[in-house]
Every structure is written in structure tokens, then in C-alpha cells.
Design goal:
It is built from 11 helices and 4 strands; from the N terminus they run H-H-H-E-H-E-H-H-H-H-H-E-H-E-H. The protein is an all-alpha fold. It has a two-stranded antiparallel sheet. Strands 2-3 form a two-stranded antiparallel sheet. Helix 8 runs antiparallel to helix 9. The longest helix is centred in the middle third of the chain and has 35 residues. The chain is globular, with a radius of gyration of 19 Å. The protein starts with a helix and ends with a helix.
Length: 315
């Protein structure tokens, strides 16, 4: 029954995230937002929503290992596994101007999360600082990409293309339904994950870093791989970078603000540094020739395999 709860939760999270992404993106396109901005904001937020509801639920349930491990494990999986697989499928082009902004924010957020965790707790003050940083980032991203959205609209008009006339009301209702599925799915997932950790006599932190982190990263996996297959590398890359920024500033920030959580010692000692190394690799690969090659994607995937093998060996 515990595993059924986890699987059911993952299915509901995936379906809910897809509904939320579709509804929110349809509304955003009607306002002329560029695809890169949609990837960095709405799609990034939508695919991170399972982590949000799961981490908040775990914190309220008194399981800091699941709450923090979910965020750290998801960021590691997003870069090493999901971005790696996307890069293996097709080389990923990186917009130099936009990425310099996002790389700075991602690096700063990662270092801030590690710094706060060294204090032993993600408290409400840290939550306010993280959420404020997210708002500032969104404003910066919007102003930077606003001209790109206008350019896309002009190009569409020049080609005599009409935007999709999806009903705004239906899109909003779809997004609300997706959010409801996310909340219910997260409850099933967290409950099942905590029960499995107890039954297997392993730490909740390990379950958070693996089962919960991988499960809540399924929307990022599906979105990025499909985007790569369709040749929309900007959307795939923006999805990963945006999701990781949201995971730290938005999810850790909101979780800490709602219910302060202790930083698990195992994560402070090891997994934080894996997250930092993965983030550094992403930035390094992206800045070299402004693209992520297939061999670089393969290196990332192999790195994730080694990370999971280490966790399994030391469980």
C-alpha cells in the first residue's frame, strides 16, 4: 500500500503539472511572452510545483529530510540526469545574453542555500530573503525578455500567423485543476515515502534525495526531453535552469517561511557539494561555445549514475 501511495502520488503529480503548464502557458502566450521567458517562469514554476507541495507537506509533517532532500536531490537530478539526457538527444544551444543573467542567479542561489544549511536550519528570515530574491529575479527576467516577446509577435504578424485562440477561462480552469491534482498527489507521495523509509529502516533524507526527488522531477524530465526532440532547446534549457532557481529560492523559501526546517547533516556534509559541482558543470559546459554537446550530456548522465550508486552503497 505504501508503494501504491507513492506511485499514485507520482501519477497525480505528473498529470497535475502537465495541466498546470498547459493552462498557464496558454494564458501567457496570449500576452505575447517569449518562449524562453515562458520556459524560465511559467514552465519552470509549473514543473517545480510538485517539489513545492511535496516539500511544504513534508515540513508540516515533521520530515525535514524529505523536505530539504527533495529540493537538493531534484536540483542534482535536473542537471545531471535530465539536462544530460536532453543534451544526448540533441545538442542544446544556449542564449549567451540570457544565460549570463540566469547563471549568476543560479550560482548565487546555490551558494546561498549551502550557506544557510551550514547554520543548521532554514528559518523564516532565510525564507523571506529567498522569496524576495525570486521576485527580483522574475522582474529582471521579464524586463530582459520583454523585447524578445515583442519580436516574436512582430514576426508572427509579418508571417500572417494568428495566435491560438484558446479560451482564457478554460486555460485558467485547467491550471486550477492541475494545481488541485498536485496538492493531492503530493500528500500521497509524502505519506508513502515516509512510510517506506520507516519500513526499510533507512533515513528519510535518503528517500527524499532519491524516490521523492526523482518522482517530483518527472515533469522536468518529460518537458525537457520532449522539447529537445522537437528542436526547442531554448525551452528545454530554460526549463532546467528556471526550475533549479525556483527549487531553491521559491520552494526552500516558501517551505522555510511556512514551517522552518532543519538542514539534515548528511546533506550538509555531502549532497550540497554534489549540487554545487553539478551547477558548476552546467555553467561551464554552457559557457563553452554557448552550447551543450552530446558528449557533455553523457558526462552529466554518468555523473548521476555515480551519485546514485554512492547513495545506494552507503544507505
Amino acid at each position: 500500500m505504501l508503494w501504491l501511495s507513492v506511485v499514485s502520488g507520482l501519477v497525480l503529480l505528473t498529470v497535475g503539472a502537465e495541466a498546470l503548464i498547459r493552462g498557464a502557458s496558454a494564458v501567457a502566450r496570449r500576452f505575447g511572452m517569449s518562449e524562453l521567458l515562458i520556459g524560465l517562469t511559467l514552465v519552470g514554476f509549473g514543473t517545480s510545483s510538485p517539489e513545492l507541495v511535496s516539500s511544504v507537506g513534508a515540513a508540516l509533517a515533521g520530515s525535514p529530510g524529505v523536505a530539504v532532500g527533495n529540493v537538493v536531490g531534484s536540483n542534482i537530478a535536473n542537471i545531471l540526469l535530465i539536462l544530460g539526457l536532453s543534451g544526448v538527444i540533441a545538442p542544446i544551444a544556449v542564449g549567451e545574453k540570457g544565460f549570463r543573467r540566469d547563471a549568476l542567479v543560479l550560482a548565487g542561489a546555490t551558494l546561498a542555500a549551502i550557506g544557510v544549511s551550514l547554520t543548521g536550519e532554514f528559518g523564516r528570515v532565510a525564507g523571506v530573503v529567498f522569496l524576495t530574491g525570486l521576485v527580483l529575479y522574475l522582474g529582471w527576467a521579464y524586463l530582459g525578455e520583454k523585447s524578445a516577446g515583442a519580436a516574436e509577435a512582430q514576426q508572427r504578424q509579418a508571417q500572417q500567423e494568428t495566435p491560438r485562440q484558446d479560451s482564457s477561462l478554460l486555460s485558467i480552469l485547467l491550471a486550477i485543476a492541475g494545481l488541485a491534482l498536485l496538492i493531492f498527489g503530493a500528500k500521497l507521495l509524502v505519506t508513502g515515502a515516509i512510510g517506506i523509509a520507516s519500513a526499510l529502516n533507512v533515513s528519510e533524507t535518503l528517500i527524499g534525495l532519491t524516490i521523492v526527488a526523482l518522482g517530483t522531477s518527472l515533469p522536468e524530465l518529460v518537458t525537457s526531453v520532449v522539447a529537445s526532440l522537437r528542436g526547442k532547446s531554448d525551452l528545454a534549457f530554460g526549463n532546467i535552469v528556471g526550475s533549479n532557481i525556483y527549487n531553491i529560492l521559491g520552494i526552500l523559501g516558501a517551505t522555510a517561511l511556512i514551517h522552518p526546517v532543519a538542514a539534515p547533516l548528511a546533506i550538509v556534509r555531502f549532497d550540497n557539494w554534489v549540487m554545487l559541482a553539478a551547477t558548476a558543470a552546467l555553467i561551464l559546459f554552457a559557457l563553452t561555445r554557448n552550447r551543450i554537446e552530446r558528449w557533455e550530456g553523457a558526462v552529466l548522465v554518468l555523473g548521476y549514475g555515480g551519485y546514485i550508486a554512492y547513495l545506494a552503497a552507503t544507505a
